[in-house]
Amino acid sequence: MIRYILGRIASIALTFTVVSVIVFLMMHAVPGGPFDGNDMPVSDAVKAKLNASLGLDQPLYVQYFKYMWGVLHFDFGIPFQSPGETTLQLLSRAWPPSLILGGAGVLIGAPLGILLGMAAALRRNSWIDYLASAFATLGLTIPVFVISMGLIMVFAVWLNWLPASGWGKPHAWILPITAYAAIPMATYARYTRSAMLDVLTKPFVTVLRAKGLSERRIIFQHVLRNAALPMVTVFLPMFIGTATGSIFVEAMFRVPGLGAYFVSSITLRDYSLEMALILMVTMMFCIAYLLSDIVYALLNPRIRVGGRS
Amino acid sequence: MTPALELRNLCKTYHLRQSGGVFARHSDHLAVRDVSLILPKNQILGLVGESGSGKTTTGMMAMRLVEPSSGQILVGGYDITALGHAALKPFRRQMQVVFQDSYSALDPMMTLAQIVAEPLHIHGLGTAAEQAEQALDMLVKTGLDRSYGGRYPHELSGGQRQRVAIARALILRPAVLVADEPTSALDVSVKAQIINLLLDLQAEMGLSILFISHDLSVVRSLTDKVAVMFQGRIVEEAATETIFTDARHPYTRSLLQAIPVLNPRERRARRFLSRAEIEAATPRLSGYGVSTGKPELIQIAPDHRLEAILQ
Amino acid sequence: MPLLDIENLTVSFPQHEGVVQAVRGVSLSVAAGESVGIVGESGSGKSVTCMAVLRLLREPPARIAADKMELAGVNMLTASRAQLSASRGRVAAMVFQDPMTAFDPVFTIGHQIVETIRAHRKVSKSEARGEAANLLARVEIKTPEAILNSYPHQLSGGMLQRAMIAMALSCRPQILFADEPTTALDVTIQAQILQLIKDLQAEFGMGLIMVTHDLGVVAETVDRVVVMYGGRVMETAPVQDIFDAPAHPYTQALMASMPGRSAGKQRLVEIPGASPNPSNPPSGCPFHPRCAVAEARCAAQVPAFKSQSATRAAACWRLP
After folding, report:
1. Phi, psi angle pair for B298, to nearest 5°
2. A306 at the B interface (CB within 8 A)?
3. What is the average pLDDT across C45-66?
């Protein structure tokens, strides 16, 4: 187990390095620089000076190592689009709304989805199963901005209960979080249903019934525990993936989160911020997969205690 | 006479990595050790043993479907052990295999005629029309009429599928057939049909069959000779009736002991030997040569080999 | 009063292509302490019959009907969920074919035996665990404590089958259903497990229903045999009679086709054709298309199940 985790950490370091190199090269492979925009014409001399002041005139590999050296010291440079603060300051300002939106969305959507999936699996081919399936399919196929617009129409325009946008007061959070919760809810419902059904058809469930265990005990102790195995590998990464927020929901409800910066840092050639965002997302996913693998191993005795002695 | 198939000192070692600690331990598992076998032309040799005895691995190595770690495989007197893919192709025509689970071995999207004709196609033998005609003939030979040519595997019963698998294996008129538990998955009332089919085809086509099985009752009705495998090695080999009437190795005896009685009147209390007891009960012989103190396979009669310790 | 009493049981599964009639009018009774073998091929309805008695089939899709289906006086057709749970494991226990898939992979063997005991009796965990260890010792496991702490994937098939037998016996059932308990095991282990079941049946004085496709298993273990084919009972007789003088043509053919009956490489007596397709069974006697002595009426009408003597009965037009 220790050996396994050490190996995984080494591979995360490798992934991280490879991603950083590829992203860095790709960013700079795109023609143009931060001061080539038509809306801000500057003379070539000024441009050269600006580039020199930001170190953009140096060879790429020097720039890369300089940047990564900074990253190792938690220095992600200065975002060109907001030079008055450091990249870290920008992140710590813009991330919390995204985190609240994503976190609350998953924390509400996931349990509801799991319950819905369980109900569907336990009452297979009943109305609740069909309803859950229909809901899950809709949740996954209707784009989130359509859901957002629907919510705004009903609750903000017609009923006038909640604000249509903004992030100031907590009651403004309700609509974006609801819109965002639809996706994890639908996904979790589908996964839970199929994981449960898969376990319910296993021979050992028949054996448990033949032993005279109550149906409740069979479901809650045995079936759920087994169904949780395939579920953790999907759920944890997804859980953490959502912490970066949703560009669409943030745009629809004008939430001042990170989403906008993912787009603007690319179009504005904001190398520092772009790198920081991608490295952050990469690191979070790496950690999420590591955690889910560890949880999987802890839940699964075949991995935890090894094979035949 | 040159045997149809000869295995000389075949070994197969699997390297296992055991989990645990920061440093993994490696160990070698000898799945098959020093197996030498002769399958004479036009005979059926039974290879008997329990799961993990190495019997299937031995059969797969004979087909070059699993690479041996050491040893030699001779087909019709030619050493095919080291042949590359292209050089092996003509020999592949001479050796075919039938598995226990014929359903997963038959492509569900192909008709039976296509399935049976496929080996001809692969080896580029004859025109498409000739191939189809031969396939239908082969289906008839295995007891399915020509109308089956247009059907698909899912329309068949287990016994019929096994007939198709045998038809496909035999369409190239191989010299050697390896049959790995071909009757184990079949219904009791159908088992006899497939055993009879193998017997008939063997006589008619001059086949030599390596019949791998754990079912001693089937082996008794079908084979000329039996080799018993235990823990990766052959512990006894003799003519089939000799095995059933004069088994000498404790493992062979415990296998025979385990066969269910054919009549309730013969019910008896049995004593079972553990693996360690079997190893400890290895026969001790004198008068067959110099003692090495270790178990070795000894020719105790013209047609009888036995693992024993020489004294 | 018999321990198990089934009259005219039918089990069907509606499917897209039509209704699959898995069991078609089976009557069976087992007395306390009696051992009965149900012999049949795949699709004969032998396993479905046992699963139906304990109501272990998923209903729907399965549809169970019978004139009578009583287990130790409890009407299993109308039993409540609580009554079923109380009967299962306690009155009737079951041992299944594949021990490798019969245990929940995420719990230890000990946990799974203990929960069985505690589902039926109010005993403490440690008491139940002590009983579990004794049971494992009784099924000839040499290191009960180590096995209790093992997970299923750590054990061999033979070891798991012993543990499953121990688990089945943990509540001292009055009848044990053993559904092909040795089919998935190695030959030498098969013989050991059969011997064990036989010994325990005598020791515990329980009834035994041994479901198998193997006449050899029957010859080894039971007092009475029920031969099933195509969802119907073909013949029932004391085990010795079945082997000495099988009455039904199907039983006769099955006996004759057993490999290894005599010395020497030889063709066997074979039964032509294949087992009936359960969604499209033949009319009349299900065996008539493969029967060497079938007559016109065999295809037209189902033969009645008639007694030949106090202990024997068969369903065949050619029998008196």
Report:
1. -120, 135
2. yes
3. 91
